[in-house]
Amino acid sequence: MTTTTLRIREIDPHGPLFEGAITVYGDAFAEPPYSDLDRGREVRARIRDTHRHRTGFRFLVAELDGAVCGMAYGYRGADGQWWHDAVARWLGPQKTAEWLSHAYEIVEVAVAPTVQRQGIGTALITALLQDRPERTAVLSTRTDSRAHQLYHRLGFEYLAEMTFTPGGWPFYIMGRRLP
Predict the structure, then answer these.
(1) Across the strands, what pairs with 64?
(2) Which residues of 50-62 are buried (b: 16+ CB within 10 A; e: fewer)?
(3) Is-contact 9 60, C-beta < 8 A?
(4) What CATH class is the domain 6-177?
């Protein structure tokens, strides 16, 4: 019988574990429905150039027997940030005040395709939100992915369905109140 050990830990956005996380991210988003073969390079640049400087930034990796198999990161959303402002326009003033005024944004979650549906995404999200001071956690996920089912199981509510660009993919905006 083989036992595996899952370890979730916070890392800085550089070095071999970070590169392993970006590889996992690229592999996960190369799969349908995303089929995006170049997304890892884009997310690496966003993290290094912008996101790591935002309040509350946390970057987590999941390791299974020492090999990186998942990643997640987020930060506190604020006025003037692209995602925050786009969602605020869609939600309107009342829902924006309720859900975005003091929110932790889960920006990305990815698990290696070979180990999906084994609790790794749940462990990453749970660790990412542990002891957060914000009132809510919010995220967006494409409507044609299975990810929204995971988020719903973890207590996230459907707040809206929207597109970020004209004619673009529809996304669910989801939120959860934090303790």
Answers:
(1) 6, 67
(2) ebbeeeebbbbbb
(3) yes
(4) alpha beta
